[in-house]
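Worked example (supplementary).
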Amino acid sequence: MCGIVGYVGSRDAVGVILDGLKRLEYRGYDSAGIAVVSSGGLQRRRSEGKLQNLVRSLAAEPLSGAFGLGHTRWATHGRPSEENAHPHQDCTGRLVVVHNGIIENYLALKARLEGAGHRFVTQTDTEVVAHLVESLYAGSLEEAVRRAVGELEGIYALVLMHESEPQTLVAARVGPPLVVGLAEGEHFLASDVAALLPYTRDFVFLDDGDIVTVTPGAMRLVNAAGEPVVRQAQRILWDPIQAEKGGYRHFMLKEIHEQPQAVRDTLFGRMGLEEGEVHIEELAGAAASLAEAKRVVLIACGTSWHAALVGKFLIEQIAGLPAEVDYGSEFRYRTPIVDASTLAVAISQSGETADTLAAFREAKRLGASGVAICNVQGSMLTREAAGTLLTHAGPEIGVASTKAFTSQLVALALLALHLGRLRGTLSRDACRRHLESLARLPHLMEQALAAPGPIEELAKAAVKASDFLYLGRGIHYPIALEGALKLKEISYIHAEGYPAGEMKHGPIALIDERMGIVALCPRGRVYEKMLSNVQEVKARGGRVIAVATAGDSEIRRILDAADTLLEVPALDELWSPLLFVLPLQLLAYYTAVRAGRDVDQPRNLAKSVTVE
Ligand code: M6R
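After joint prediction of all chains, the assembly is encoded as:
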């Protein structure tokens, strides 16, 4: 939902800002803009469409300056256009602002400012910030911003600069993320750390209500009352190379292939194989809540919500605890039964998803203790949780989540085993056996990815399908949902995930030769039932892509020449979702490539959804 970069220092600000925006483009890509101050004063350049258009415009007519700010937009108010692209300026053209979020009271503020003579030229909510700060400016940008944010309602990460305050940027945060990158003689601002990894690993994460002023040699952090705030810097261990494509055509494909390592890194150091224990130091502070909880509520959105559905199975089966799964966006709008005996587990790759954060806060307000599973150290969610089980997937750039998902699944596996041991529902021996299975996973994932079967061939036909139905049962039903989400978000082919047993209650009517059917048929508890569901599809002329356990001869007997079998290595049913999802990710990827889609930046989407 919009990416922001700011720079003050001795480098060419344009280069640093464009480089940072490139790494943030996954957050929004319908228009982009930059403003820098040089001896010639404040100059601004904006373009509709992808960042590349702005880069081209700057190549034709270069800008330079030693401080500046930039933005890549995901439109909320006002259609994507050059006029509505950020940065927005005040009436004098000497002050500019970039914004991520929504100013909810912008109409009232706009009417007041227009009444006072300010001229608005865009349809955005953001422009009101430029004029409001202009109206309050009396020589100190920090002071004007501090007074302005007191009048704003909504959510915002803002960065501003004023031509008459050299080498100074002022930023404010309520809601969407903003970090300050620290380095010798220079400072950076960005929506996330991945944008700045080539420049620094040291970051200060801004909190809600923070206002920060940066110059090349200083950073001043204050609260809404203007009182100084002390905040520790954090060192981020992500490798900048992880945020590059590394020879792959798309980030998504690279991230699919990084999954064995992401899973290995997430398991690493947490598996006490010898003693049959799980060690999650980050949750030590929440041990009492984990041990005493009577029920678990898992809160998430999108792909993370699918991980939560798998987590429900694992927690119920291994720890014997009732578990419910809620969409972040729905939880607050019913009457959830939550009290001090509830353990709320928020799951989020980014740790910044507005709906997940809001639901998590609500659960805690109702008395639940709250822990998180998150991929971004220092993100808002990690700061609000009593403990965070970090997934070590590294930066995930592709909008379609892949390695974050499988890392979440192993984090949930570890959490379920940990809960089982803490609560005495899982013996050491049983825990050891589970850990031994999990330890085999990275290697089996490598095997599955090295020999995925005829997926590229399948994609040629898949691209012609009007719809897809993904069928799964039990712990593989959420994998069917995830496979369908992957396909629809990057190929734009309509797809639904369905519990296979429910098909005869309605969706079976849809089956025809233009409908693609993907059936997940792992060996295990519901295998026979799943085969019956495949037979039902075939009896109605449906063509099936079956995903099954390697060496399964039974499934071969019911498939015919029109069908396709994709095999994944055998593993304990509880952990096999981590293998079954891999061909589904690849099918979505190759279908989208074949359809000529923009795989890493699908239309209308943004990686982190920081508005509700
Ligand atoms: O950062 P989060 O895990 O909280 O994000 C949640 C969803 O927005 C995200 O999973 C989204 O559904 C992805 N596009 C799925 O590929």
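Two points are worth noting when inspecting this output. The chain has 19 helices and 26 strands. The radius of gyration is 25 Å.
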